[in-house]
Amino acid sequence: MKSKLPVVLAVVAVAAALGYAGWRHAGALRAEALPENVTVANGRIEVERVDVSAKLAGRVATIAVREGDYLDKGAPVAELDQVQTRAELAAAEAEVERAFQGVAQARAAVASREAELALAEVQLKRSEELRDRDFATQAEADQRLAARNVAAAAVDAAKAAVGGADAARKVAEADVARIRAVLADLVLTAPIAGRVEYKLVQPGEVVAAGGRVVTLLDLTDVSMTVFLPTSSVGRVRLGGEARIVLDAGPDYVIPATVTFVAAEAQFTPKTVETSAEREKLMYRVKVGIAPELLARYRDYVKAGLTGVAYVGLGPDVAWPERLAPRLPDAGS
């Protein structure tokens, strides 16, 4: 019985040749379908991520969100334990009350010293009158003068004490403000409006200063990153038109805009002396979707979806009919 291996190999070779020819033919059709000033590249949807992190170390008391929740800017995300900090706040507020009492006592002391000074002034005046009429000695007048000077110095000291007490009050109030700021930092809020992608800790866990608690997706900053060769990227215009077609929705065409073109090539051969080698240089390009469009389709935005981006080359792009913007009903 003759071996069937040569026949099998021949069939495989014919199939491979036909497949290659079909692939070349399909590629040619795709190339013919695009105008000269439109290029296409594969990519995936990227959504800007924002971490909500703890400014201070502490134990997580509560987590107010679940993965997938949509949060408005400023919405509560989590709280760290506040028992010790609130006790410190109560002590600091008591110090403020004590400082106010200190200020009141110092002002009362000023009033008392001023009254003593007034009495000393009266006694000095009488003593001087009696001395002039020879009813009192010069020594008695000198004693009254010294007593008046002592009273005046006491008034100055009491007024200085008021300034010190008032400064102590301000220090106590600043300490209260500091502790309240710490309490505010123990309540983590959403810095942007977005969707919760990951919840990274659970209640009871201890996080370090700077530790991540939740990751949010900024649904107003969505783009697709593609890589274009040198021959194409030189004609790409920042702010130029683009189109995105996702594998998950091939019937829809999403309008986009070129928002970024890398200044340096991502894949660089060792030498670029020939034009063939220069064609191997690939540049990263981002095409972004308008925030107002994203707001309409907020619930459909997902990171990681694959697809293709069609990028216009030059200012005036004649888009074919099949790449005209076509979007689903936002309510469907």
Automatic annotation (TrEMBL):
This is HlyD family secretion protein. SUPFAM superfamilies: HlyD-like secretion proteins. Residues 49-212 form the Multidrug resistance protein MdtA-like barrel-sandwich hybrid domain. Residues 89-130 form a coiled coil. Keywords: Coiled coil. InterPro entries: MdtA-like_BSH. One of its GO terms (cellular component) is plasma membrane. Signal peptide: none annotated. Pfam families: BSH_RND (PF25917).
